[in-house]
């Protein structure tokens, strides 16, 4: 946990240094633009059959319908492998984010997604279980622009997944690229 906190502090300080020289985007920068993002996460599960720390990759593609509203599609995959336990969980979804107008280089946002989930859990000696279901998430974060078309993304996300019967609290650091 100390290593994770140290890494997050280094990333925050590095991004602040990079943003100090960056050109801030204009007020209507995002209107009609497309966004591609990639994120990594470390999360702690609760509920369901297992409690553990897992890895995750998240990608999304968004389109701004107005300066403050973004519609998006997302894809997540996460998993864990222990001595006698393997889990792969993934989802495809769609949702929307609302971007609040703050300073031009720091843009807070909040949103939610509806997800179609798939889960496969294999416990050594007990067999495996595969399930699909519907999930949802709510999230909030800050996009820190380091250039006109590039931002670092800091996010907290809460997700409920009926396929694995789990709830997830995720802290995500990501990288966003905006396309004209």
Q: Mean pLDDT score, rounded?
A: 76
Shape call:
elongated
Low-confidence stretches: 4-32
For the CA atoms, what is the radius of gyration?
Answer: 18 Å
The number of helical segments is 1
Number of strands: 8
Strand order of the largest sheet: 1-2-3-4-5-6-7-8
Beta-strand residue percentage: over 45%
- Secondary-structure element string: HEEEEEEEE
Q: Kindly report how far apart the N and C termini lie.
A: 39 Å
Would you mind describing this structure in some detail?
The protein is mainly beta. The chain is 11% helix and 66% strand. The protein has one helix at 2-20, and strands at 34-46, 53-64, 69-81, 85-99, 106-123, 127-147, 150-161, 166-179. The protein has an 8-stranded antiparallel beta barrel. The longest helix is centred in the N-terminal third of the chain and has 19 residues, at 2-20. The radius of gyration is 18 Å and the shape is elongated.
Secondary structure: elements and pairs:
Layout: H1 2-20, E1 34-46, E2 53-64, E3 69-81, E4 85-99, E5 106-123, E6 127-147, E7 150-161, E8 166-179
Antiparallel strand pairs: 1-2, 1-8, 2-3, 3-4, 4-5, 5-6, 6-7, 7-8
């Amino acid at each position: 946990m100390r290593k994770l906190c140290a890494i997050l502090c280094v990333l925050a300080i590095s991004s602040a240094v990079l943003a100090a020289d960056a050109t801030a985007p204009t007020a209507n920068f995002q209107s009609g633009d497309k966004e591609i993002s990639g994120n990594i996460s470390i999360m702690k599960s609760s509920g369901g059959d297992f409690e553990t720390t897992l890895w995750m990759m998240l990608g999304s593609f968004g389109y701004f319908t107005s300066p403050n509203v973004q519609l998006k599609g997302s894809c997540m995959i996460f998993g864990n492998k222990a001595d006698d336990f393997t889990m792969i969980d993934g989802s495809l979804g769609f949702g929307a984010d609302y971007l609040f107008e703050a300073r031009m280089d720091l843009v807070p946002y909040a949103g939610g997604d509806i997800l179609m989930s798939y889960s496969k859990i294999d416990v050594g000696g007990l067999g495996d279980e595969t399930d699909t279901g519907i999930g949802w998430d709510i999230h909030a974060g800050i996009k820190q622009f380091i250039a006109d078309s590039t931002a670092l993304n800091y996010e907290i996300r809460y997700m409920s997944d009926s396929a694995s019967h789990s709830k997830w609290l995720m802290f995500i650091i990501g990288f966003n690229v905006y396309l004209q």
